[in-house]
Amino acid sequence: MKDNSEKFGFALSKQNYYLLAIGFVIIIIGFLLMMGGGSEDPNVFNEEELFSFRRITLAPIVILAGFVFEIYAIMKKPKEKEEEK
């Protein structure tokens, strides 16, 4: 007879979830870098503030790096502990 007392756990390890949280924080930082650029007066257009390096280049790179880190966090295999005999 088969023993059906296998342990079922989470698909990912604790370390994977920790890395996922770090990736999520990186993505949030990227979106925070993209914020701003508005003007108090709707008749004034400030091109330097709206199209700055931070919003057009840096923020999308940080967001993309966060998504790549998320993929790594999901795909990383947990280290298996050696079974004691």
Coarse structural class: mainly alpha
Strand content: under 5%
Task: Determine Rg (CA atoms, Å).
Answer: 22 Å
Main sheet record: none
Shape: rod-shaped
| Straight-line N-to-C gap | 24 Å
Low-confidence stretches are none
Mean pLDDT: 84
The total count of helices amounts to 3
Topology pattern, helix = H, strand = E? HHH
Roughly what percent helix? Answer: 55-70%
- Tell how many strands the DSSP assignment holds: 0
Question: What does this protein structure show overall?
Answer:
There is one protein chain. With 85 residues, this protein is mainly α. The protein has a domain at 14-36 and 45-75. The protein is 56% helix and 0% strand. The two termini are 24 Å apart.
How does the SSE layout of this entry go?
Elements: H1 14-34, H2 47-50, H3 53-75
Short description:
With 85 residues, the protein is mainly alpha-helical. Helices cover 56% and strands 0% of the residues.
Keywords for this entry:
85 residues; mainly alpha; 3 helices; 0% strand; rod-shaped
